[in-house]
# Entry
Amino acid sequence: MTGRQPKRTRNRSATEIRILDAARSILAESGAAGFGINAVARSAGVDKQLIYRYYGGLDGLLEALGRHLAVWWQDRMMQDAPDRTPESYAELMEGLALRLLRILRTEPLALQSTLWELTDTSGLARTVSQARGQALGAWMASVRGSLQPPPGIDAPAVNALIVASVSYLVLASRTSDNVIGLPTADPATWDRIERTLVRVVRDAYRSA
Amino acid sequence: MTGRQPKRTRNRSATEIRILDAARSILAESGAAGFGINAVARSAGVDKQLIYRYYGGLDGLLEALGRHLAVWWQDRMMQDAPDRTPESYAELMEGLALRLLRILRTEPLALQSTLWELTDTSGLARTVSQARGQALGAWMASVRGSLQPPPGIDAPAVNALIVASVSYLVLASRTSDNVIGLPTADPATWDRIERTLVRVVRDAYRSA
DNA sequence: ATTACGTATCACCGGCCGGTGACGTGTCAA
DNA sequence: TTGACACGTCACCGGCCGGTGATACGTAAT
# Structure
């Protein structure tokens, strides 16, 4: 009857992790819309005052989350598919496109952080957004070896088109089951998309 | 000193237009984030109660806005470029891609309504979102004539990739000046993108 | 045992949101 | 002239937001 309850664990670094984890899962589950001091504090089971003390408010928390996501993207890109080293620049890009597609489709965190990049005007989520770009670049560098794109082709532009199309299709499929005429609820559609991606990349990088 | 001021125009249909125009310009200028009953009422210089009376609240207003945007997209797609009728299916898609790219880049309303499609989960903005898809389809139908895609090519998938890439690049350029490695602040970058788009479409639809 | 400090909690603020009920006041028909 | 009614306005509600000051409590050095 006496003591209320033992007040909490009283462990700063553990609390900091609780907060960061809560931030991460809120972003993954609710997206940028549901993200805020109150929501993070509630989800972490912690008073929001601690977010101000340990992270310096929303800005600091987002910076920390950005750093966290940067390594998360790196890990996620590298893992689970040491597919054979590509024999051409086109194959390299095929690998990147398919890998990105699968990550975006299976990892809510990946999807939401990509989406946030499009909506954040305040620049508050800048560090969060940059994470993906860095990871893509790092993967390219690590797998590329000495492969060069065929001459006379604007490789950065082609690659941007590919990555952009993958990103948009997955983002749009989240809220609609018919994206630009494709029934994205049907798994077979994604097979078509993958085959078409491969085909388009090969055609774009064929030298002739 | 006596009469306050004449209370307002006392003209329902004019007020309805004021409200709808305010909604449209708020969407164009502030996007989905800034959109709400209070903001629309303020911008229209009208009490929000009227939005409930005339449109039945946010839902009704959004439906009306959706219908409005549907015809707006149609007009915007058709106007300002009766470019020569295409001689191949590839040319047809080139035209669509370039037209969409330019509309998205120059019309904030087009960009924001496309963006809303990605963020709206409540389905509240469904009618707003569908407007674009309908307009693209209608334009295709009107220009297509008897052109057919080459056999053995998944034309819907290719077209979706193209439209998706254009959409993503423009959306992302709104909040960042470096999108997937491309400096989108530099006008020359958009020339590269256009050239690359044309090239990719042609390669994708070459029959051989 | 007392002090000092870091950890955690609570209570409160102003502001904006969507939504609603009650209140004028022009207009036009009975 | 006297209604009835539609158009417009005002005031208010509960709820959530980001942010801050004061307070309780465990712990470790003095």
Remarks:
- The CA atoms of residues 55 and 61 of chain A lie 5 Å apart.
